[in-house]
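To the team - zinc ion complex, inputs and output below.
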Amino acid sequence: MKRTAEFKTSKGAEVVVTAELKLTEIIYADGDNVTVDCCEMMPVKAIIDGFPDQAGYRNFHKPQKVNGFTALAAIGRLALSAKNAAKVEKIISEIEKHPKWIEKQEKIRKNQEEIAEMESRRIANGYCPKCGSYCYGDCEAN
Ligand SMILES: [Zn+2]
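Output:
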């Protein structure tokens, strides 16, 4: 599943941004290509007219002044104005609404809950996360 957004840089270069959720991949098994299901968020890509392609979307912690405009985010080295960042965030959020992605996030959340539960049970039974054994705090006593 792919979504694209188009806009111009502050200097007028055309930009095509692609966000992709990979839902199948080809694996090589004994000389055969086998298509299997997967659910991977690919790095956001930007194709910029006249410049090298950039990849990887990130928000800045604080707005940055770049070439006379205020940038809130970037794709690789391409700084994005609030308006352009909003276009990119929109296609990312569209992809994150895919049922398989939601299902995957739910699984991750459940796993983390189960791990936390298991950890707290072990700690209640005298397990020490510092030394990784049932030392009942002896490792700290010495
Ligand atoms: Zn210990």
